[in-house]
Amino acid sequence: MSSEKSARRTLARRCAHAAIGTGVALAGMAVVAPVAHADHVINGCTIVHNPSPTNFTNCPGANLSGQDLSRQNLKYANLTNANLFGANLSQANLTSANLFGADLTGANMDRANLTNATLADADLTGANLSRANLTSANLNGATLLAANLTKANLTGANLQAATLINANLTDTKTDNANLYLAVLTDNLVN
Q: Where is the signal peptide (predicted)?
């Protein structure tokens, strides 16, 4: 074997080992890198990519008005008193999130998962909660004027002293929901 061929093979092996050591695989001429998911920041609020009970999005009072948070994993998030006016939270995972006192006026929460979420004293005026899962959610004292709750699941939800005026409750599931002192007038119910 010529020394030139041997040198090329040695160089090729070193490049392959270096590439594998850095997490990059070479296949022919294509370079494939591992997909990285990282936290990202929206208006100063760090959205935690893979939240846990001890590591979650923590943005009380954040201004996320009009932001696209659709399909985001906001499980356990602390968004107390946050401004989410007109935000898109469709299909977002807000399981066990704290949205106490948040402004969700006109927010799109279609098909959002709000299981065990706290929405006490939140303003959901004109919000779209169609097909949202609000199982065991706390909406104590929440305002839901003209909110769309079509096909929403409110099983076991606490709506004590909530205001639901001109809300669309068509095909809404309310089994075992607490409606004590809730204001329910001029609603569309099917």
A: 1-38
Domain hosting residue 9, numbered range: 3-32
Print pLDDT tens along the chain (190 aa). Answer: 455 555 555 544 554 444 444 444 444 444 444 444 689 999 999 999 999 999 999 999 999 999 999 999 999 999 999 999 999 999 999 999 999 999 999 999 999 999 999 999 999 999 999 999 999 999 999 999 999 999 999 999 999 999 999 999 999 999 999 999 999 988 887 7
- Give me the number of domains the chain comprises: 2
- Shared domain for 62 and 113, answered yes or no, is yes
Burial class (CB within 10 angstroms; exposed 0-12, middle 13-18, buried 19+) of 31: exposed
Residue 50 and residue 72 in contact, taking contact as beta carbons nearer than 8 Å: no
Q: Which two tokens stand for residue 71?
A: 């399909």
Strand partners, 41: 46
C-alpha–C-alpha distance, residues 56 and 66, integer Å: 21
141 within 8 A of 164, measured Cβ to Cβ: no
